[in-house]
Specification:
single chain, mainly alpha, 0% strand
Length: 261
């Protein structure tokens, strides 16, 4: 009886050790990137503030309300940027941990989806910075009442920008969500196509909730979400499971793999 319990506990402990090691590698990767970028923290923040500074009135600057904001805010940005840059390596570590426990068909599906979701997230951030921010900041700065000086706090600006980045990055994952829904047999492409009107309305509601209260930014988020839904709907037809699609692969024995190593 004790031997059976030991045989169960040993692979469980080995999995925990492997998970710990991979988490440490993720943290170490973020730390290395952070140390490499820390010396350029002020330059990176200036680049991030570029879309706003281009539309601010002449002789106006950003301000720092808190005493420590000029020091901590750029480093906060660099830390978050380091995590963003490390996403491919983090996803690789996640993939290397779960892949041995997946069927062959699942491995063929999930790995491309991880790559596509990473690229779409980065694409959403780039779209927000290069397309949305110039229009949004141009509108917001021009809407200030007469006699009101536009001076934004650097910490609040960073929080606003990061929220926008996250919103656009997640919303650009719509094709992945659509493909996963079809692949897991929760819905069919035909059923998704029937729900297109609700998707369009939902996209504009999400745009209204996640973006500033102006029609430009709401539309710039809602329309890409709709187009990405159409793209995901088109691609999902390639991932419809076949009725006779039965899994013949056996789950790999991770304990045997670790013993071989």
């Amino acid at each position: 009886m004790n031997n059976s319990n030991d045989s169960i506990e040993q692979p469980f402990i080995s999995h925990l050790i492997e998970l710990r090691n991979r988490l440490l590698r993720m943290v170490l990767c973020v730390l290395v990137v952070f140390l490499g970028l820390a010396a350029y923290a002020n330059e990176i923040y200036s680049f991030l503030a570029g879309p706003l500074m281009q539309h601010m009135p002449k002789n106006s600057t950003m301000i720092a309300i808190d005493v420590a904001s000029p020091f901590f805010t750029p480093f906060k940005l660099v830390l978050i940027l380091s995590a963003f840059i490390s996403v491919p390596y983090i996803l690789y570590q996640f993939w290397a941990f779960v892949a041995p426990g997946l069927y062959k068909r699942e491995r063929r599906m999930i790995f491309p989806l991880l790559i596509a979701s990473t690229l779409l997230f980065y694409l959403g951030i780039a779209f927000a910075y290069f397309v949305v921010f110039p229009l949004v900041f141009g509108f917001l700065t021009s809407a200030a009442p007469e006699g009101v000086a536009v001076m934004t706090d650097i910490a609040k600006y960073l929080d606003f920008v990061l929220a926008m980045f996250f919103a656009f990055g997640v919303c650009f994952e719509v094709p992945i969500f659509t493909i996963v829904l079809v692949w897991t047999r929760l819905v069919t492409p035909a059923e998704l196509a029937e729900k297109r009107p609700y998707v369009i309305v939902g996209a504009f509601i999400v745009g209204a909730v996640l973006t500033p209260p102006d029609a430009i930014s709401q539309t710039l988020l809602a329309v890409p979400m709709w187009m990405l839904f159409e793209l995901g709907l088109l691609c999902s037809r390639l991932f419809v499971p076949k009725p006779d699609d039965t899994e013949t692969d056996e789950l790999p024995n991770r304990l045997e793999r670790q013993e071989d190593e």
